[in-house]
Structures are given as C-alpha cells and as structure tokens.
Task: structure prediction
Amino acid sequence: MDAGTAGDEPYMMAKTLKDVPILVGSNRLQSCSIALQKFNPDLIILDDAFQHLKLFRDIDIVLLDHSKPLGNQRFLPRGPLREPVSALKRGSVFITTRSRTSSVNWPKELDAVLNGKPIFFTTHRPYVSSIEFGITSVLSRNINTGDQLNMDVFKGKKAYLFSGIVRNSDFRASILEYGCIEVGFSEFPDHHFYSPKEMETIFHNAEKTGAEMLVTTEKDFVRISKAISWPVDIIVVGVKISFKEDSSLFDSFINKNLK
Result:
C-alpha cells in the first residue's frame, strides 16, 4: 500500500522495517488474529493500543511528554487524556520524550501512579533522512543521509520550512537550532496530504522569499506526490529516539519481560 491507502505512519514503518509485516486496522483483536494466522510471529507490537483491553499484553509501554505529561489535564476533545490518570497504573514501563534533563516536576497524582515503575528519559535527535535535489541546487551531492552529523547542512542557508504534524512549532525550533536562516514557514494539520495547488503556493512563497532550500519532515514527505519537480533542493528531516546512557538498561528490561 502507499501512504494514502495505509496512512503515513504505517507506510513509514513499512519502509523502515522491510522484513516486518505491518497490519493496519481499527479492530486490533482481528488484526492480531490475522497476524497469527498469516505470519506466525514470535512477537506482536501494537501502536497506540493502551485502551484495547480485549488483548492480553506482556508489556505496556507508555510515552509521556517530559514537560507536560498530562497536557492540560482535560479529556478528549478538550485535551489529550482518554482515561483518568489512575489508568496509568496498568503501565509496565514509562518513557519520557523530549527530555532536557533527568529531573521531573510532575503533578502529584502522576507521582503516585508512577511510584516504583521503571522510567526512562529520552530525547529526539533530528537527522537528514533524504535530499531531493532541485532545478536550482546549492547542496553538495556528497552529503550522507541518515546521519545526525549532517544537520550542519542548514548552517547559514536561507530555508523555507513547511510541516503538517502534531507539533509544527517543535519541528521549526529544532531546525533553527542548526543555524539556518528561516525565510518562511507554512504549517498544516497532522496527517495532511498536500494538494498540487498547496505545493505551488509553497514553491511560490519560497521563490518570493529567496529560499535556497525547502525543509520538511519525513512524515510530511510521504504525503507529497512523487511526480513533483522541485525548484530548489528539499531536505527531508527524520527523528530518532535516543535513550542516551540508558539504552542497554531499556533493552534488558524488554528482554527480561519477554521470556
């Protein structure tokens, strides 16, 4: 399937995990049954399945934003919560994302729930996932993609940014940290598929502002037609999760609990 049929995130998983079957379906029990019948797996990993209680699970991994783990502490649609905070007691292990430090200043009700459970602190590390060279190109053809070190490619370059993810501002801020000169920014809703007209507008704005390159996320790039001819270079930025010095401890936890 393509990104339009399967969804952008499953499509990206399939591209990265080439030998791992990826199933998409709202009925997780049915999807797991199909996986067992067709692929005979040793392990099934479910994304965003904390509320699917019909399925027995060996491990529940819960991700929390380090700076705002409970959002505005309101339930959908007024906030991010789907259940009371007490439901987090079902979690086996907790991972904080975007962690600047290993210290926390969390609401008291969260401290009570997480007490004694293993917690790992992670950071997001952007990297150059791929580059499409434009009709007008300022970049060297020898840049290695997939490398965080090559984020210095932005330094001193005039860049027009665009993205359609949950936190567009975070993407923007992370690119600016690497010294680019932002000449424009267009933001869209999460999972947004770009129309030809929208891409024309982005190209027009980039040209008008003198941009030397376009920059977007890996998730956005799979939602853009592959038939596009890029007027300038476009850099596609991916994100890796780093456990820093706790990587081996996390691996040990997983292995211990998957006997």
Remarks:
- The radius of gyration is 21 Å.
- The chain has eight helices and eight strands.
